[in-house]
Structure formats: C-alpha cells, structure tokens
Amino acid sequence: MKKVIIFGYNEYAKKIASNFKAVHEDDIRIYVINESDKNEAIADGYKSELVELDDEWLDIGQRYEISNLICFCALDDDAENVFLTISLRAEYENMHIVAIATSKDSADKLRLAGANKAIAKLETTANVIVESLEEPAIVEVMNEILSHNKELRLAEYSISSISVLKDKFLHDIDVHKEYNIIILAVSDKKMEADFTFTAEGYNHCIKEGDVLVVIGKENDLQRFEKVIE
Fold it and tell me: What is the CATH number of the domain that holds 16?
C-alpha cells in the first residue's frame, strides 16, 4: 500500500484521512500550518506536524520513498494550495500530487502548477481517493518546465504606464481563452506586497509597476508579451 501525506485538516482532509485510516492508519501523516489543526489531528489519532509553506520539504524525501507516496494538498486556501503544489513539484518531480480546489478555475491552475490530479470540491472525496490510487502518476506540466522538455514555462511581466492591461481587473482579462496562458500570481509593487497567487474571487486592479507571473507555451507567451507592452 502507498503511504499518504495530507496537507491541511479541514472537512475534506478529514474525509480523505478517514477513508485511508481503515486500510493503513500507520502510513498517514497530516501536515498543518496552525497549532489548532495539529492538535485536532492528533486527537483524532493521526501523526501530525506543523510546517511552513516556504519549507524546502527535504525531510519528506528522507522520510518516504517518493515513488510509493501520495500527497494530498487540501489546504483551505486555493492560493496556498497552488504555492504548495509548485514547491513540492519543484523538489520532487516523481511525487504523485492530488490537489483539492474550490472551483474548476482553481483546479486548472493547480494542474498547471504540477498536480497530477486537481479536483474541484464538487466531486466526491471517494472519487478523489479511488482515482488517485488507480491512475498512474503522470506529471503533466511542472516536469516539462523543470526537465529537458520545456515547451511550457513560467514568465514574469512588469506592467508599464502604456500597457493595455493597466487599470484593468483580473476578472476582465480572459487570457486563458485568448492567449492560451494562465495568470498564476500578481505582485502589487505600490503596496510593496509579496506575490499573491490568484484564485476565483481575487479581482485585483492592475496598476503600473505590478508584476504578473504567467505560465504557458513559448509562442503564446511571446504573443502575449507583444500585446501587453
């Protein structure tokens, strides 16, 4: 049986853990980002640890055989799940990652971030577990970025004073359909903010000096760059 690690301890994480518990309880570990979730997971009988989302995840590789591991990214926030998925995929190219999303749009971003499977919460948890066990571990996107096949890549674009995107809202920009790329994150330079991973409901107004992080194929990125500049 594969070993299981779960990030987060919300209702979906609990259902995933509960389904696996009956089969191989000793092979489940819960990683959480706050003390209350850790205490609750331990009280429910699981091994649980506190982590920071910017950890390098080296201990996972030391603790587990990655090829025999399933990782569920089930944090409450879609942006945190995207960041977590990117971080894990960058460190472990062969890890099987299943990510939970609040919407289909967020699920698409998680797949681009490197999840083998990203499921909107409308799908049943039972299906998530069954499919994660039955489907082969196929890394579709981040492996291409990190390995020799670099058809897809990440890019950053700074918004100038004459950019066509200046003063537009993210929700008004349909770059996925028009340019076949996805905006993963935006940094508001005037607010001196760190990159904020976009998710449904986050409707930032793009200003001069903002930086967009996008993912797509090289020719699509070049076409997008010419337009926005």
Answer: 3.40.50.720
Q: What is the rounded CA–CA span in Å between residue 62 and residue 172? A: 45
pLDDT tens readout for residues 204-223:
788 888 888 787 788 888 88
Residue 73 · residue 97 · CB < 8 Å: yes
Question: Three-state SS for 119?
Answer: strand
d(C-alpha 65, C-alpha 91), whole Å: 14
Q: What is the pLDDT of residues 178-209, one digit of tens each?
A: 777 877 777 765 544 444 544 444 577 888 88
Nearest of 99, 35, 27, 86 to residue 57 by alpha carbon: 86
Contacts of 57 (CB under 8 A, 6+ apart): 87, 88, 91, 92
Query: Taking the complete model, does pTM exceed 0.85, yes or no?
Result: no
The last residue of a domain, from among 120, 146, 172: 146
Same domain, 17 and 83: yes
